[in-house]
Amino acid sequence: MNRRTRPCPPHGLIYIEDTAAGPGIASRLGIAPGTVRRWRSLGRGPATFRIGKRVVARISVIDNYLVEREREGLQSHARAA
């Protein structure tokens, strides 16, 4: 997090970057904030939207995205075995 104090997102939502309220989209996914922005511009990754000038996602959407990636990884691993 940079030196400025970032405002906390509305309940149930997260910003791309970390805030005092907790980890952001990038940290939850283990990637750089720029990667989230690039995915967004390419129409990839978890669903995000804007509130004013800030990009947000529902926490549940990020959690579901991670579950889907895990499921895909387990399925491809099972096929390779």
Structure explained in plain terms:
The chain contains three helices and three strands, in the order E-H-H-E-E-H. It has 81 residues and is of the alpha+beta class. Strands 1-3-2 form a three-stranded antiparallel β-sheet. Strand 2 and strand 3 form a beta hairpin. It is elongated. 15% of the residues are buried.
Spatial strand order of the main sheet: 1-3-2
- Percentage of residues assigned to helices: 40-55%
Structural class by sheet pairing and helices: alpha+beta
Strand elements, count? 3
List the secondary-structure elements in sequence, H or E.
Answer: EHHEEH
So how many helices? 3
Distance between the termini: 41 Å
**Average pLDDT, all residues:** 91
Shape: elongated
Calculate Rg over CA atoms.
14 Å
User: Main β-sheet: number of strands, strand sense, barrel status?
Assistant: 3 strands, antiparallel
The amount of beta strand, in percent, is: 5-15%
Low-confidence stretches: none
Keywords:
single chain; 81 residues; alpha+beta; 3-stranded antiparallel β-sheet; elongated
Characterize this entry briefly.
With 81 residues, the protein is of the alpha+beta class.
SSE layout:
Blueprint: E1 13-15, H1 25-29, H2 33-42, E2 49-51, E3 54-58, H3 59-80
Antiparallel strand pairs: 1-3, 2-3
